[in-house]
Amino acid sequence: MDKKNEEIENIEELGVSSVAQDNNEEIKCITIIGEIEGHYIGNPQKKSTKYEHIIPMLYSVEENDNIKGVLIILNTVGGDVEAGLAIAELINSISKKVVTLVLGGSHSIGVPLATSGDYSFIAPTATMLVHPIRTNGLVIGINETFEYFKKMQERITSFIVRTSSIEKDKLEKLMHSKDELVSDVGSVLIGKEAVDNGIINEVGGLKEALSKLKELINKN
Asked: Distance between CA atoms of 173 and 195, rounded to whole angstroms?
């Protein structure tokens, strides 16, 4: 496969023109869009981010000495909880400086993804949907199932608290609010509201996110 066809395939599959190990760029941009796809294939008619694509990309970034920082751009409706949390943990564990930018929205499991970097931005009109985990389909109503979901929720909550400035009590209050969603519990935070609640560091766009990332790289 020649280089041009390879780049076209990477754009179609990964949303980027090239993977980290194939270039000498100092800053790597990774997009997480649509639905986070986990162990099961999602609707082929919907945009999705596959965790089996993102994880090797992050590994390549960690191994590439030329790359000093990563910009994660998010516009996701959420999706597979295990896959989303796995990606968030991996982003949080790499040694390179990471700045996240929420554009459009970063809902559900997209919240820990947005807080997984060293610093986070949200566009003024972007939204974040904070709610307890839920599942589709049949759930067996036994105590073990309840305990599983309870522990999963605790994992997500502890990650967000660990990687942002929000306090646990405030986060749980936002998750279980009944004021904003007609048929569900949770909270919708728009732009500055996410900053005021301590989930995101600052309101800004691409210019601000890149400037901050370069600042962190220079400090490092």
From this structure: 16
Catalytic (active-site) positions = 108, 131
Write out 21-88 in H/E/C secondary structure.
HHCCCCEEEEEEEEEEECCCCCCCCCCEEEHHHHHHHHHHHHHCCCCCEEEEEEEEEEECHHHHHHHH
Structure confidence by residue, pLDDT tens digits, 14-68? 444 444 444 568 999 999 999 998 777 666 767 888 888 999 999 999 999 999 9
Tell me which architecture the domain covering 3-219 has in CATH: Alpha-Beta Complex (3.90)
Beta strands in 80-208 (DSSP E): 97-106, 119-122, 127-130, 187-190, 202-203
Q: Does pTM surpass 0.90?
A: no
Q: What are the residue ranges spanned by the domains of the chain?
A: 3-219
